[in-house]
Design goal:
Blueprint (H helix, E strand, L loop, with lengths): L6 H24 L3 H20 L7
Length: 60
Amino acid sequence: MSKIINLRTIRKQKDRDRKRSDGDASAARHGEAPALRAAREAEAARAMRALEGHRTDGDD
């Protein structure tokens, strides 16, 4: 016989896990040194510029 599961409990646990992972990411982001944060943001901006540089217009 199958085990009965409560879908509400599963949904709540999934929400808790998601919030915990979001909180961990936020704590890591806000806990880093300003120089590391600036370097991470600069790298993200550089990657975005490189991606935009390779974009095609579609007017071909």
